[in-house]
């Protein structure tokens, strides 16, 4: 059956691929934040496990191709590994259900190890599944066409690539939105089960769609794997060369010619071409090491930024969508506009030059990321080091007060309802505080041992009241805000903000901090014995901590003063767009060119080997991230970005030199030469046979 001149089975394959990529990229988009906020790993461990997983996903395709070509055939491989995949996604969704082990219902899992174990099992199954499917699906699609449908086949591959990008684009937008929802049976938190569950459901749909079409597929018998033949050929050549290493044996033109005793000339010639390309692949992993940090380091960078785009709130993991959006725009623009312009300028922009430019651009993108990081670091608060204390003074009275830090370290005057910034002291030096206002004087001897604290001071007719409260010692994660209240009314009050109740606050006392989602305003309500008043909080931004002083409550109107304990994230997420843009340009010239170039430099039956080599460069790139991030004990994130950029620049120069000495080949010409030689060989043998026959007849 056909439709628009295409085999009908193709539509099932394209839908299958769309669902599979949606499932994979959706899960991957929220993965690093799942590690950080749900499993509560630090940035470095989250990054390490993320890249280990990605590396696995690119190593398993080689396994998948071997299974399909040598044993099960593509159809059975796709089905059996899709089942593994679907189970993996489902396990992942279950692992993120907080209520599984949250017996005390406080909103965080009690036995995190259960969740870690489940999610690791899920990730391994997913890596096996995606790796098994990746090399098979596109080739299986290609198998559906007859030999005379070359045009439709090439168009199929374009549609196929589009469906990959559409799947990744949609899922990178949708999954973070699902993650940002609040859900849970007993306590509300980020909805990871939904974020992992939707990809799992799509994977199941993808499997069902693929099975429905099973009657229509053209199923090619497994042909044996070319990779195995190539490896055997290389192995034999090395062994044979080693056996004949003495001077007595004549040298051969190329070390692979030592395989000619056992393998035919054609396979040896093809292997030479493949090895020539694979040699050029050696520097490429460094590019992927930078490219794949979009999902780890760059996403973690976005969590320390301000995601307020007017009416829309952008989640940190949604910044990754900039890449697929730009890809969809850039690929046609580059092909239709940029390359023709370069050609007009009489520049020969060869594939290897494009790859070199791609590497250079990726290094540039990391320099941009480092510059953004430096700006972010400027806005981060400085917390007290060991042996230091920090103190902030807030004047809750009507008269100004002067505070003398004894022994004569410093003195400050604070006017009514003002607060100072934090002052840092060596804990051992600061003995006491002498507080004076007009005629009245009091001394405060409270301990500060290595903390941040706020000192609330209120003068009244007879004396000075002083109250010390401990402050937040770390910036709230994920763009949330910490809020607490100080009661500056004479009576005990009850404060609620949004859905959170802060309980009863006696006069001058401070509540504990409560966590609120970033970027929104909440209703503050104060109840005293006699009355209640309310007001809407100001916009608190992302990642801040505030102390809100309740000053007056009369006629239902609430008067409050805000004191900033930790400033909100001020660097806007839009500042990440330049680095994403540069990296996407790099991807367009690097990734698209790389595969096309490989295929043009080797015979068609060797495509599988090159595909495996290409995927291997991605896997090795992710392993490089682990090694560099682990070995470089850089405490500063910007320095790590610069280090990666420098490494890639060095590799880029090495690659440029290798490319300069590379000579382009035309596999078709070499094939034609081999055909000629074979014909001659056959003719020679025929001639010899004829002569022999003549000689026989003359006897």
UniProtKB/TrEMBL annotation:
Membrane-spanning parts: 48-68, 75-94, 114-133, 154-174, 194-217, 273-291, 325-342, 354-374, 608-629, 641-662
Keywords: Cell membrane, Glycoprotein, Membrane, Peptide transport, Protein transport, Symport, Transmembrane, Transmembrane helix, Transport
PROSITE patterns according to UniProt: PTR2_1, PTR2_2
GO cellular component terms listed in the entry, alphabetical order: apical plasma membrane
Known catalytic reactions: L-phenylalanyl-L-leucine(out) + H(+)(out) = L-phenylalanyl-L-leucine(in) + H(+)(in); a dipeptide(out) + H(+)(out) = a dipeptide(in) + H(+)(in); N-acetyl-D-muramoyl-L-alanyl-D-isoglutamine(out) + 2 H(+)(out) = N-acetyl-D-muramoyl-L-alanyl-D-isoglutamine(in) + 2 H(+)(in); glycyl-L-proline(out) + H(+)(out) = glycyl-L-proline(in) + H(+)(in)
Biased composition (Basic and acidic residues): 677-699
InterPro entries xref list: MFS_trans_sf (IPR036259), Oligopep_transport (IPR004768), POT_fam (IPR000109), PTR2_symporter_CS (IPR018456)
Cellular localization per UniProt: Apical cell membrane; Membrane
Membrane-topology descriptor: Multi-pass membrane protein
Any one GO molecular function term: oligopeptide transmembrane transporter activity
BP GO annotations: protein transport
Ranges where the record places region Disordered: 675-699
Main location: membrane
Protein role: Electrogenic proton-coupled amino-acid transporter that transports oligopeptides of 2 to 4 amino acids with a preference for dipeptides. Transports neutral and monovalently charged peptides with a proton to peptide stoichiometry of 1:1 or 2:1. Primarily responsible for the absorption of dietary di- and tripeptides from the small intestinal lumen. Mediates transepithelial transport of muramyl and N-formylated bacterial dipeptides contributing to recognition of pathogenic bacteria by the mucosal immune system.
PANTHER family the UniProt entry points to: OLIGOPEPTIDE TRANSPORTER-RELATED (PTHR11654)
Family statement drawn from the similarity comment of this UniProt entry: Belongs to the major facilitator superfamily. Proton-dependent oligopeptide transporter (POT/PTR) (TC 2.A.17) family.
UniProt subunit comment: Interacts (via extracellular domain region) with trypsin.
Protein name (database record): Solute carrier family 15 member 1
Organism: Mesembrinibis cayennensis
Gene from which the chain derives: Slc15a1
